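User: My collaborator sent over this chain with a note saying "see what the structure looks like." That's all I know about it. Can you take a look?
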Amino acid sequence: MFALQNPWAGAARAVLSRFGRGNVLYSLNSSAVHQLENTLTLDLDTHAKFEQLQVWFEPGTSENSYNLRSVKPYYVQHVSNPIILTTRDDIPLPSPVYLALHGTCARVADLSGAGRYVDRILRDMESIPVLAKDGSSAEVLSYALARIE
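Assistant: Without extra context I'll predict from the sequence alone. Here is the result:
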């Protein structure tokens, strides 16, 4: 659900540290990142939007209920809110702390313009066949290299 390997991970670390959420950072930087509480099964389209911080879950009015939200309402128009998260008794539900953290990051990315910046880089990665001689495609190269680390 939440991994600190995305291009905005450095900014996320700084924000979380600044607001005293270092304990969340510690768990996401340790083997705890692989715990089931950091797992969420989504359809392919929703997963892509979730990973790109374009959709997030907000707590609903009852236990384990959430509403899927987006800054682009047409991304979630097909969803019947609220969504009730369920699991078998021996498998924990996704962490409400991690879901809230993801939602905060998604809203900050939108408000700061970071989401549009990342979208542009991703589009450029798909459309630029070779790097520009003048260095104008350096951001694209930097992002592509960061993804393989």
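A starting point for your reply to your collaborator: The chain has a mean pLDDT of 79.
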